[in-house]
Amino acid sequence: MSNDFGEVLFSPESSSRHELQAPPLSPSIPALQPKKNTVLVSHGRPPWYAEDGQRISDAFVIGVAGGSASGKTHVARQIVRKLGSIPTVIILSQDSFYKFHNEEELALAHANQLDFDHPDAIDMTMFAACLADLKACRQSNIPVYSFAQHQRLEETKYLYGATIIIAEGIMALTDPRLRALYDLKVFVQCDSDLMLARRIKRDVKERGRDVNGILDQYLRHVKPSYDNFVLPSSTYADIIVPGSNNDVAIDLISTHIRKQLLERSNKLRQKIAVPHKYISSHSGSSTPESILEDLDLTILKSTPQLEGIYTILRDITTSRQDFIFFTDRLSTLLVEHALQHLPFVPKTVTTPVGVEAHGTKMNAQYVCGVSILRSGGALERGFRRVINDVPIGSLLIQSENKSGEAMLLHVMLPYYVRYRHLAEDAYVFLLDAQIGTAAAAFMAVRILLDHGVKEDHIIFITFIVARGGGVSVLKRAFPGVKIVCGAVDDEMQEGWLEGYKGEGNPEGKGRTVWVMKPGMGQIGDRYYI
What we know:
alpha/beta, Rossmann fold, 6-stranded mixed beta sheet
C-alpha cells in the first residue's frame, strides 16, 4: 500500500512513497527536525477559493538566502516557531534541485573537485517550476538529493497544501524567476569565520566529509561563489537578518506574515450556507424529479426496498450492527448506479457455446476512490464490493472550532492522482456520507482540480443531499461534477454549537452550525463507534 499512496501535511518529514502514518490531531507544532524539505502543521489549510470555486489567494512565499552555513535553515525554523499556531508550512530547500551528475562529474564530486556553489549547479528551471506550482496551490513532486552519493535520486517527494512556503538556499535570490515568486525576500548575513566553523562541523557530522576536503572545497569554490554570486544577491532582499542574535528581525518578519495571512483570510462556509444562495425548483415542487431538473443530480429511483433501507438508517434505535449492514448495502447500490458515469466502449465476446455476444467494457485507464474522512469511510466497503481492484485515498477535512470553516488537515491520494500527467486521465469517486453545507465537498473537489483531475471526471457519491443546503452552490461552481445520491432532504436548520466561542454570538452560545433534517445523524460516529 505504501507504494500506491502519498501523504502530506502531518509528518515533520513526509515521504512521497515510503510513509503512511496516522495524522496527529493536536494543535501543537511537531518537533522541528534537522532535515530539509519539511512539512509542518499546526492548524490546517483554510479555504483558498471563493464560492464560485475559483482560487482567490496563493500561498505566501518567502525566499531566504545567505552564505553556506550562515543559518538560513535556522532562521526559517525560527520564523515558524515565532508564528505559533499557523496553517501548514513547507520549508523547501534549494539543495533538492542539484542537477543530475554523470559518471565523470560524480568522480569529481567525490574528490571535492566539483563546484556545487555555482548557480549552474542548480536546476533553476525545475526549482522555479516546483515553487510556482506550490504557490498556485497545486501539488508538486520535487527531487530528492543525496549528499552522501552526490547524486539526485530516482524517488521524489510529494508536497501539497501549504499556506506558507519558505524557500531557502544560497542561490535563493540570484535567479529572477525565483525572485518573481517571493512575497518576502530575506538575506541572512553572517561572519565568514563563523560560517566556515559551522560548515566544518556540519559536513563532518552529517555528511561524512574530512576536514582537509572541506577546507579545499571552501577555498576553491565556496568562498569565491559567496563573493561573486551570493553576497551580491543581498541587494534584492526586503530585509537583512543577522546570522545570530536575530530575535528582533524574526519578530518583524513574523508580524508581517501574520498581517498578510489575515488579509488573505476567506470566510466561505457562511456564504455557501445562507438561504439567498440556494437554488429552488422552478415549479416549486420538492419531488426528486424537480430537484434533478434544477441541480442535475443523479438520484436513485425510489422503491419500497430503498425506502425501507432509509427508514432503518434514520431510526435512532437501530443497532450498530444493523446500521453497518444496511449502510454497506446502500453504498453498494449507490456505487453500482454511479458506474454509469464512467466511459464504456462496445466489445464483442464469444460465449462458452460458441456464439458471439455484443456488450461493452469500461474505457477508463485510471479509476480510484477518495474518502472524505471520517463519514466517507462508511461508503468504502460498498465501493470495494463493486470495484475491488482500485486504490482508495483519503482526505481529512474538519470544521475549525471557532469559525466553522472547513480545514484541510490531511491528504493521502493514489499514485496517479499525485502526478498531473496521470491525473488528467483519472476518474475519481469522491465518497462522503452527506452534502449539507457542502463546505467539505467544496474543498475536496477543489483539491482534486488542483491535482489536475478534470471536473467531469469527478463522481461524488453520497447517501443524502440537503436541497436547501450548499449543494446548489457546489453545482453552480463545478457543473461538470456528477453527484449520485439516494435521497434528498429538504431542510437545513441553523443553530448554535455549544462549547465554542464563535463570531457574531455575543451571548457566547457558540458558533453557527446547520443540521440536515430529517437526516441520518452523525453517520461516521454511528458506523464506527
